[in-house]
Design brief:
Length: 279
């Protein structure tokens, strides 16, 4: 099982960029799911593999009717569209009002996302962009099914204080109370910093110490470069060598570290030509 849910405490400070960047360099076949109840961004900023726009009606919106009759993990692929470059995505809702159509279905989706890695036909990990992680968003119903919940945070003091408190609240909600950082509770709760690469190493240690001292049960898993130019390249707004960008280079390090630490528990091997396609 490898569902990785990515969220932020307030707003979405780089959640979508981080999710796309990690999915783009993921070492196995991966499905990027836009699971933000407030609506997705990819349909507005990314081109489909055929060169035209993504279909906003194929994705989370179309999967609602299927899920109400029960959802087999392989059925997810019926609602997936490939981006230019090969990344396979489940396009998010267009507007927040459409989230009503998914009412009561989030646990079903979470189970399907988590079980896709065990599919005998087309296994894949799922990276879910969940937007905000506040207590009133239905996307948190995906979290109990995840192997890892990643909270994205920038490095301003107020942002770090919020992610500390959100991590502690999630630990209580998901694990029944605060736990030590070494406790391998499921899902694991990690923090992903959006940081200046020149100071990220020191910040990772400082924030990790803060999380441990506060007994949040979370730990910093790494940092993604605060790289506006790379983010524009990733979104297709700017040309350039994306693979050489600070954003993608830092995302590669995060994915390598995640798989080194937790990959043994994510047991599905890469599947043929799909693994890493278009990355």
């Amino acid at each position: 099982m490898a569902l990785i849910a990515i969220a932020a405490d307030k707003g979405s400070p780089g959640v979508t960029t981080a999710a796309v960047a990690l999915a783009a360099v993921w070492p196995r076949r991966v499905l990027l799911a836009e699971a933000d109840p407030a609506g997705g961004d990819l349909v507005y900023r990314s081109a489909a593999a055929h060169g035209g726009p993504l279909n906003p009606n194929t994705g989370m919106l179309s999967i609602a009717a299927t899920a109400r009759r029960g959802l087999v993990p392989d059925q997810l692929w019926d609602h997936v569209q490939p981006l230019s470059g090969g990344l396979e995505v489940l396009v998010g809702l267009g507007i927040a009002e459409q989230a009503a159509g998914l009412a009561g279905l989030w646990p079903t989706l979470g189970h399907a996302f988590a079980s896709l890695a065990d599919s005998p036909n087309a296994p894949a990990d799922v990276i879910a962009d969940c937007g905000r992680a506040s207590g009133d968003t239905p996307a948190v119903e995906l979290f109990p099914h995840a192997a890892l919940v990643l909270l994205v945070s920038r490095t301003e003091p107020e942002a770090l204080a919020r992610v500390r408190d959100r991590a502690a609240a999630l630990s209580t909600k998901l694990h029944g109370g605060p736990r030590g950082a070494a406790t391998l509770a499921t899902p694991l709760i990690g923090v992903l910093l959006i940081a200046d690469p020149s100071s990220s190493g020191k910040l990772v240690n400082q924030v990790n110490d803060m999380l441990v001292h506060a007994q949040t049960g979370a730990r910093v898993v790494g940092s993604i470069a605060d790289d506006p130019a790379g983010a524009d390249q990733l979104a297709g707004r700017k040309r350039g060598r994306l693979d050489k960008s600070l954003l993608i280079r830092s995302a590669r390090k995060v994915t390598a570290d995640l798989h080194q630490q937790y990959g043994a528990a994510w047991t599905v091997p890469a599947q043929g030509p799909h693994a890493g396609a278009g990355r």
